[in-house]
Specification:
Strand 4 (about 85), helix 4 and strand 5 form a beta-alpha-beta unit. This protein has one domain: NAD(P)-binding Rossmann-like Domain (Rossmann fold), CATH 3.40.50. By secondary structure, it is an alpha/beta fold. The protein is about 45% helix and about 15% strand. InterPro entries: KR_dom (IPR057326), NAD(P)-bd_dom_sf (IPR036291), Sc_DH/Rdtase_CS (IPR020904), SDR_fam (IPR002347).
Length: about 250
C-alpha cells in the first residue's frame, strides 16, 4: 500500500511548515501549498526530502477557486490520492477597531480564512468521500483562540473568521461522518510565529505571555503535534472536535 498523502495549505512557514515536516517524519507524503513565498516553501520541501521524505510545493491562493482546483489537481497528478487536508492558510491584519476597518479588509479576511477553508474542504470531500468513490480521510482546520475571546480592540474580523471555521468544522464533520471522513480543528493560542509581525505586532507574543496561565507562548511544533494526532488513526473516533492548544487561556 502506498503512503498516505496530505495537503497542507499555508505550509511554507510557521504552523503549516511544522505540520508538513512532522507529517513527513510520520510517513506521510506531503504537498506544501504557498501563496507567494516560493523560497520558504522550497526550504520545507528540501528539508523533507533531505530526511528521506516525499514532498512537493504548490503555489495557490486558497481564496481563489481556480487556484484551489488547480492545487488539488496537482496533488492528484503527483500522488494519485488524498488522505489528509490541513486547512492552515490564513491571514491577519493590523490592530484596529471595527469602526476603523474598510470593506476591502473585511472581504480579504473572509475570502481567505473562511471561503478558502470551505473551498479546500469541498475539494477534499470530493476526493475522500465514499459517496464519491473515495476511501475516506481526515480534515483538520486551524482555528484560533480568538474565536472564543473575540479579540476586541485588535482584530474582531479575524476572530469572526475563525468562529466561522469552528462552525464549519462541526457542521461538515456531521455532514460527512458516514462517508469515511473525519473533520476536526485545532484552536491555537499565542504561538511564536511570524503571523504577529505580519499583523504589525512583532512584539505581541512577549506582550501577551503574562495572560497565558502557563506563562509562556506555544510553539508551532506543539500545534503541529495536535494536528497530526487528529489526522492519525489514533483519533479514529474523533470528529467534530476542536482541540484547544492555548496554554490554558
Amino acid at each position: 500500500m502506498s503512503a498516505k498523502t496530505m495537503l497542507v495549505t499555508g505550509g511554507s512557514r510557521g504552523i503549516g511548515a511544522a505540520i508538513a515536516r512532522l507529517g513527513a517524519a510520520a510517513g506521510w507524503h506531503v504537498a506544501v501549498n504557498y501563496a507567494s513565498n516560493e523560497e520558504a516553501a522550497a526550504r520545507v520541501v528540501d528539508d523533507i526530502i533531505s530526511t528521506g521524505g516525499e514532498a512537493f510545493a504548490i503555489r495557490g491562493d486558497v481564496g481563489e477557486e481556480a487556484d484551489v482546483i488547480a492545487m488539488f489537481e496537482a496533488v492528484d497528478a503527483r500522488f494519485g490520492r488524498l488522505d489528509g487536508l490541513v486547512n492552515n492558510a490564513g491571514v491577519v491584519d493590523r490592530k484596529a477597531r471595527l469602526d476603523e476597518m474598510s470593506v476591502e479588509r473585511l472581504t480579504r479576511m473572509m475570502r481567505i480564512n473562511v471561503i478558502g477553508t470551505a473551498l479546500c474542504a469541498r475539494e477534499a470531500v470530493r476526493r475522500m468521500s465514499t459517496s464519491h468513490g473515495g476511501a475516506g480521510g481526515a480534515i483538520v482546520n486551524i482555528s484560533s483562540i480568538a474565536a472564543v475571546l473575540g479579540a476586541p480592540g485588535e482584530y474582531i474580523d479575524y476572530a469572526a473568521s475563525k468562529g466561522a471555521v469552528d462552525t464549519l468544522t462541526v457542521g461538515l464533520a456531521r455532514e460527512v461522518a458516514a462517508e469515511g471522513i473525519r473533520v476536526n480543528a485545532v484552536r491555537p493560542g499565542i504561538i511564536d510565529t511570524e503571523i504577529h509581525a505580519s499583523g504589525g505586532q512583532p512584539d505581541r507574543v512577549a506582550a501577551m505571555r503574562g495572560l497565558v496561565p502557563m506563562k509562556r507562548e506555544g510553539t508551532a511544533e506543539e500545534v503541529a503535534r495536535a494536528a497530526l494526532w487528529l489526522l492519525s488513526d489514533e483519533a479514529s473516533y474523533s470528529t467534530g472536535a476542536i482541540l484547544t492548544t492555548s496554554g490554558g487561556r
